[in-house]
Write a structure and sequence with these properties.
360 residues, 19 strands, Rieske Iron-sulfur Protein, 2 domains, eight-stranded antiparallel beta sheet, single chain, alpha+beta, globular, Naphthalene 1,2-dioxygenase Alpha Subunit, Chain A, domain 1
Length: 360
């Protein structure tokens, strides 16, 4: 596979070529070199709020599909492998409560932190148990009520949390409550990275989103970059439906109606005065993407107002555009484009990271 290059100077850079989005080999490399090296959203602490609670899940629903589980051992939350170290059986299929984890295949037993405890009929085995007979433990980070994990702790995720906390840490994040009635999954006929490209710029808002454009001040739209995440600021046209920022906040005095956080490679945390819409982009195949919208509410009285209103309408408008772009990637004459230095900083940042990880 040929190397991809994004010039670090956005004023000179060209976008990733159309071949990037058409190649199945590149798609598979992205799974192994990007998703296997980065962090994913698991859910909130409500999944594991009770002592001795066990909650199985899959790391990256499509692609990697690594079986994991969360456990609560007297308030200590751990993320461990859901695969028995004897013969590879899945240990836990459904959420449950138990003092220990026992494999239903041959009876191997572990404690809630994944430490090996007992195995029948192994007295004659030499050098047993080994450290490899414990369940593998995965890194786990918590921010507010939300949990994140990774296959390996190679990317500095704490810096991502710190960047978000710097802007919205003044909010009572632990009071955010999931509203499952507002959760929704979307299936989009496009490459997952094109969906992220679209999210990462406000350039298209006046052309695609009439209702959103009516409440946001396009002239003040800005993007702030961090190593593995970035932030887009949505400034309100008027003084309505904005954050009540504390005086010590660095944005105090500005009429901000939305903080749009993107976390490399596929997570979006969209904060509005009413709460947060978390969007997780999941690559199914080269031309198929699942986007999960997860809603957390802080103030019900502010729902469906300002920049945080009509999210389903905005999503459908975005889908129409990104599906059209994916079709355009099959053109024999289109190869690559240029970035707007003012409006496409986030896209340039994202594509630069993709090239960096693929070339590593």
């Amino acid at each position: 596979m040929k190397a991809f290059h994004i010039h670090p100077d956005i004023t000179q850079a060209e976008t990733l070529p159309s071949s990037f989005y058409r190649s199945k080999m590149v798609f598979e490399e992205l799974i192994e070199k990007v998703f296997a090296k980065t962090w994913q959203f698991v859910g909130d602490t409500g999944l594991i709020s009770l002592n001795q609670q066990i909650n199985p899940f899959t790391f990256l629903e499509f692609g990697l599909e690594e079986p994991m589980m969360l456990t609560n051992d007297n308030g200590s939350i751990t993320c461990i492998s859901n695969v028995c170290t004897h013969r590879g059986n899945i240990l836990c299929h459904d959420p449950c409560k138990s003092r220990q984890i026992t494999c239903a295949y041959h009876g191997r037993r572990f404690d809630l932190k994944g430490e090996f405890q007992h195995m029948p009929e192994f007295k004659e085995a030499k050098g047993f148990p080994r450290k490899e007979d414990n369940l593998h433990r995965f890194p786990l980070k918590q921010w507010g009520p939300w949990l994140f994990t990774a296959l390996e702790d190679s990317l500095d995720f704490q810096s991502v949390i710190d960047a978000m906390d710097r802007k919205v840490g003044f909010l009572p994040l632990q009071e955010f409550k999931e509203d499952k009635s507002r959760n929704k999954d979307y299936l989009v006929n496009t490459h997952w990275a094109l969906y992220c490209d679209n999210y990462l710029e406000g350039f298209h808002i006046p052309f695609v989103h009439d209702s959103l454009n009516a409440v946001l001040d396009y002239k003040k739209y800005e993007t702030q970059l961090f190593p593995y995440c970035n932030l887009q600021f949505g400034h309100a046209v008027g003084g309505e439906h904005v954050f009540d920022l504390p005086k010590a906040h660095e944005d105090y005095g500005q009429q901000i109606s939305a903080y749009y956080f993107w976390i490399f490679p596929n997570m979006m945390f969209n904060f509005y005065p009413w709460g947060c819409s978390i969007n997780i982009v999941k690559p199914i195949s080269l031309n198929r993407t699942k986007v999960s919208f997860i809603t957390y509410v802080l103030d019900e009285t502010k729902l469906d107002t300002g920049a945080g209103a009509a999210l389903d309408k905005v999503e459908r408008e975005d889908e129409f555009v990104v599906e059209g772009v994916f079709k355009g990637m099959s053109s024999r004459v289109y190869k690559t484009g240029r970035f707007s230095p003012k409006m496409e900083k986030g896209v340039h940042h994202f594509q630069g990271l993709l090239a960096k990880f693929l070339n590593s």
